[in-house]
Design brief:
Number of domains: 1
Largest sheet: none
Radius of gyration: 26 Å
Structural class: mainly alpha
Number of helices: 3
Helix content: over 70%
Strand content: under 5%
Number of strands: 0
Oligomer: single chain
Distance between the termini: 59 Å
């Protein structure tokens, strides 16, 4: 029963991974469209400014660097936080696995027959595969969430610029 509950929990986590990946994919497409619109519009403004510098949209040009700096700084901080969370999870998992391996070594060493050794090794290996699968699903979910969080400030800036420049 315990393994069935864990399997359902892992399947739910996997569903979250696919849902988050789908959302990230959709936002990546929207970001690509918005960014191409903004680049095209700003290139047009730049060409017009080269022809007539006095009537250039200096307000728009003044926004470019601060917007990008803010968006990419926020994205970098989000990525850094996600990376540190992943590092903590991996360190916890490694520590737990070391304790489990020590317990398994003691259990295997205390076996009196070859069949007992094989049974203990089999239990350890089967439990290890389940834990590794579960942990990989958790880390994949964390990676997808980190990607979405890191992409969010850039996405917001690009889509807001595209809306503003469409007017």
């Amino acid at each position: 029963m315990k393994s069935r509950t864990r399997a359902f929990r892992d399947a739910r986590k996997l569903g979250n991974v696919t849902r988050i990946a789908g959302t990230n994919g959709r936002k990546s497409r929207e970001l690509a469209v918005a960014a191409s619109h903004v680049v095209a519009k700003r290139m047009t403004l730049g060409a017009a400014a080269m022809i007539d510098p006095r009537n250039a949209d200096h307000v728009e040009f003044a926004k470019i660097i601060p917007e990008k700096t803010t968006a990419f700084s926020n994205a970098g901080m989000a990525l850094l936080q996600g990376s540190s969370e992943a590092a903590v999870r991996m360190a916890n998992f490694t520590t737990s696995e070391l304790a489990t391996a020590a317990k398994a070594a003691v259990e295997i060493a205390s076996c009196r027959t070859p069949a007992g050794v094989i049974a203990a090794q089999s239990r350890f290996a089967t439990a290890w595969f389940a834990r590794v699968l579960s942990q990989s699903i958790v880390l994949a979910s964390l990676a997808m969430r980190s990607q979405g969080t890191a992409m969010a400030p850039i996405y917001r800036a690009a889509t807001a610029n595209a809306r503003r420049l469409s007017r």
